[in-house]
Amino acid sequence: MDKCLLDTDTFSEIEKGRNKIVMLRAREYRAEWGFLTILAITAMEINHGLWLSNNSRLLSKFAVTLANEEFLPFAVTTAVLAGKISAELDKRGIPIGLNDPMIAATAIEHGLVLGTGNTKHYEQIQQIGFPLQLANWRESDS
Prior knowledge:
By secondary structure, the chain is mostly helical. The protein is built from seven helices and five strands; from the N terminus they run E-H-H-E-H-H-E-H-H-E-H-E.
């Protein structure tokens, strides 16, 4: 299995444990790599939702989960690329916010596949010429 950077939607689905295909991929990935690979941005996005829900049990559980994962750095070169991606999308009238271009730029910079269930969203980045590799973690390989 290729090393992947997981998008927030996929990491959140793993935490919820509801999608059997996503759970299978996560187990296979952990078996091969020993951890899931994410960004602090993903941790922030999920924590945002948990704080809004005011669920202290889930917040505590999520903090424990984060201690076992691999966090990739967000370097200045990645920030420049993310800004370029975001600007190009905005110019074409297809803004996707700031977090997703940051996640996509990190995957590109590290030569990783972006594991997501939101491929249509990220395909917009591919369509404007950025070399983003995608894997839909909601679909089985067979």
